[in-house]
Amino acid sequence: MVGTGEGGGATKRRGCACNKEDFLPEDSFRNWGSYVAALSETGPRLKDRLLTRSLDTTELNEVRARSQHEMKRNLSWWDLIWFGIGAVIGAGIFVLTGLQAEEVSGPAVVLSFVVSGVSAMLSVFCYTEFAVEIPVAGGSFAYLRVELGDFMAFIAAGNILLEYVIGGAAVARSWTSYFATLLNHDPADFRIHATSLSPDYSHLDPISVVVIAVVCTLAVLSTKGTSRFNFIASIIHVVVIVFIVVAGLTKAEARNFTPFTPFGVRGIFKSSAVLFFSYVGFDAVSTMAEETKNPAKDIPIGLVGAMSITTLAYCLMAATLCLMQPFQKIDPDAPFSKAFETVGLGWAKYIVAFGALKGMTTVLLVSAVGQARYLTHIARAHMVPPWFAKVHPRTGTPINATVVMLVATAIIGFFTDLGILSNLLSISTLFIFMLVALALLVRRYYVSGETSDSDRNRLVTCLGLILGSSIATALYWALDEKGWVGYAVTVPIWFLSTLALHLLVPMARQPKLWGVPMVPWLPSASIAINIFLLGSIDAKSFMRFGVWTALLLVYYFTIGLHASYDTAKESTDTTALKKVEEGDSTVSETTAKVVNE
Hints:
By secondary structure, this protein is mainly α. It is built from 23 helices and four strands. Helix content is 68%, strand content 1%. The strands form two sheets. It has a two-stranded antiparallel ribbon. Helix 9 (150-182) crosses helix 10 and helix 9 packs antiparallel against helix 18.
């Protein structure tokens, strides 16, 4: 049983009819007897999935072929930059800035955006190298499947999907808030208060559902059409951002920056953890790698360019807001609109509200495109039903995945409070970004069949110390508000572990097209910062995260494990599979050729 995997064999073709074969076509689900037999083999199958890793070429060819139709390659770096701006600048800056400045960090929210931006940029570098080398719709799911194996990829996949559903729901609810401002109403006027429900889930938001339905329609029609709409909307959005900064600074008062850190350094990092939500979205751009004309050129320029512009815009907007009025008086629902009204520029609030609505609409649109492509690639691996992997022959878009993901987003957005959504979203996102940075270090320092046992053991030791010291630093931060002795131990351990990795473990693989600079320092720093920010998130959010992870495991052990195992077993070309201890040394060269074709 152990050691079966995926290769280049023939794939089953199913029609468009919606039947059992579209959802559970694998041998383990033929009948109850087969299913009981599969469950009895859970242990060996789990071992196989833990040790088995996919190949770059498998993701690029055989797995992609399971969608039956190709996605259209029609995006350039220019499209990706605007997709990135459209995906990121939305509810985070227009809503959460006010909430965090008023209650958590004060004017130092500007520094919170800097910390979050640095963390996001480090993650962008890691994503970019993977996206260039493995330009498929699966994004981080595909990257983790290649480097950390099926099991870790599935856990990440579940959190990726949670990230997108929650992020879309949060933006849709924020859309209602600014729409109310545009019409001179309170957001509560457009929500239904269901007193019989829990307070966090009782303010029902029908407008968010309508907005998501419109976005869904646009997303399923055409990726290039979505890009054109996003480009136009994002230009308007950028013009509004420039207006906010210029007009807002004409009413700036330096005394509003005093005190700058009313809640101390801890408040800065607490806000950073939540405001990381503001940077969520760039990973959706990496899922479009399969649709880019020249991945080696378009992806680095698109991702890094979009994140640089976004970080600068966030810092300028946050500084402008805090200079316009004292942080205690910032409105938590529509901070920029209310700020202009407070300083006597009431007419400007309509421009701001309009720009915010435009920004949130593009965030929803790009998110819809990205989340559908994640689900499509996960379904290609049969970790979820292959029905979700189908690409429509005419539109070249994954319609099934798009509709299902947005229905889930609409349901969550209809019920759930923004505060719950933003904290839970940040946990999932930081966790995934940490795994991608870890996977990049594995990719650079380990090649199956080439790396010696001693080098592998040193790599495992260094990575374990990097992770352990980062977790210890985050725990110490969360549990001891005034101490410093712990940092004097954990930070040097992180530094020395990274240094040891740099000096003692030879790099096993160099990127053929584009690579992260300063390896292992930048990926290691990304791991440390992401884990540290996790230590600033409240306990209830971690409980919700734990419940979601438990549900993922239940699904995996009852369905996902057996479906993906059967799919791998049916593959006829077992040479296109590598194990942790057995692999192909020509992976990088083959991948480079595939990408350049």
